[in-house]
TrEMBL record:
Transmembrane segments: none annotated. This is DUF305 domain-containing protein. It comes from the Bacteria. It comes from Demequina sediminis. Residues 51-199 form the DUF305 domain.
Length: 204
């Protein structure tokens, strides 16, 4: 579906999307961090510049995480890393859709090429690599070397999301966006700890 058409669908179905996400939260596996969005959050149009920037930049940030995670699903050597990749993709894909619906409801632009380029300098540096370099490095590896690099890169990536979300909590106005930022902080800090534990294991 074209991106412009998808915006129309997202605006008209914003509340339904939020209810779906809330329902998914109740079915998550025990101990699995998952974001829960309230039904009223996407309909709220009160927002400030910090909310807009957060949504635009976090969409790009999440798109990078999903791209990496989807590669892991077919390339990971260990089941723990593969499961982590599936979980990241499953959680962040719906969050992207939610933030796109917010921007449309607020009358704000979706991120463009400029925002994608800016992310390389705002919370997207991973072991000194931008998104394209990170994907190329991962694509050149397999086995345990692939798993280790993925974990190292995703830890840096998650830290960037936590930093961005912390700013949003302090400076944002939209209650839904602030709630999402808090949930991202909790979920991704938990996954950072999980990934650091996997790296500490002798197999990796």
């Amino acid at each position: 579906m074209a991106r412009t058409a998808r915006i129309t669908v997202l605006v008209s179905g914003a509340t339904a999307l939020a209810l779906t996400l809330a329902g998914c939260a109740s079915s998550a596996e025990p101990g699995t961090p998952r974001v829960t969005i309230t039904a009223s959050a996407p309909a709220a149009t009160t927002h400030n510049a910090a909310d807009t920037e957060f949504a635009q930049m976090m969409i790009v940030h999440h798109e990078g995480a999903v791209e990496m995670a989807d590669l892991v699903v077919t390339r990971a050597a260990t089941e723990q890393v593969r499961t982590l990749g599936q979980r990241i993709s499953a959680a962040q894909g719906p969050e992207i859709a939610t933030m796109e619906s917010w921007l449309a409801a607020w009358g704000e632009d979706l991120p463009d090429a400029a925002e994608h380029g800016a992310m390389d300098h705002a919370g997207m540096d991973m072991n000194g690599m931008d998104q394209g370099e990170a994907m190329a490095a991962l694509d050149a590896l397999d086995g345990e070397a692939f798993d280790r690099l993925f974990l190292e890169l995703m830890i840096d990536h998650h830290r960037g999301a936590v930093e961005m979300s912390t700013i949003q909590v302090a400076e944002g106005e939209n209650t839904g966006a602030i709630e999402l930022a808090r949930d991202i902080i909790a979920a991704q800090q938990s996954e950072i700890a999980e990934m650091e534990e996997l790296l500490a294991e002798s197999a990796l």
